[in-house]
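Chain and conformation:
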Amino acid sequence: MQANLTELRRLTAHAESRRTDTGIPRVAMVQGSIPEHMLAAVYDPMVNLILTGSKTITVGDRTLRYDPATYFVMSVDLPAVGKVHAAESGEPYLAVSLTLEPTIVTSLLADLPKPAGGELYRPGFSVAPVTDELLDAWVRMLRLMERPGDIRALAPAYEREILYRVFQGPHGWMLRDIAAPGTALSRVSVTIQWIRENFTRPLRVEALADMAALSVSAFHRHFKAVTSLSPLQYQKRIRLLHARSLLIAGQGNATAVAFEVGYESATQFSREYSRFFGLPPSRDSLQIVSRADLVVA
């Protein structure tokens, strides 16, 4: 296992302190100290592997920490707050990720035996112990950066192998459930996509429950289990994260941004923003921009 980690660290040594393209579809890497505001975001479904250091990620009231002994799976789009940590030796944080493509997951699922039923209410994100087989697949995938001419022919096979190893792990059910129609996770995923695309609109839980073909009470339980948030809390996080990005980009003052992301009261927006990010909107965005200017200077 250590030899594989050493090889992966060598292959990704040129990663930057932001999402860095590898030239391989859906595969990215990152290294170093990442500003915390960049780690408060809506995360796409992914498999995330830490190579050096560790990371904590908080979704709702649930916080997970993972390091080179584990990997992280997120099966649905989730608003989360992350923080990265250097290794105890001082080496910078280093990680790679594979964004999940539902059509590829579904195609692989068709070639696998159908598993026995599992728990009824399960989260859409978790951490699992890494295996040599999974690391082997990642090594083969990332070596393609040194042979870009092979990417088109070989990357799809290595992507399937990585996903297959995740399928074999303790959280393989996450991939199965997002690919299999009719599961609670796939039904909740449909409503999550609707909220993401319509977060400025008023939210009616009854309409979302109908969309998921669940009773209102069952929908609430499944949504909370998957996201660690209620539907209204999920919408609020999406609104606040989008508002922060607008403020940092200078696309309006706090009042204008509040109304743009769907709030009807600027006072309520400021109160909820301060509760979530720790500072009022204007002070928070000014602080982030000032720190960025210092780094550039």
Notes: The mean pLDDT is 92. The chain has 13 helices and ten strands. The first strand starts at residue 20 and ends at 21.
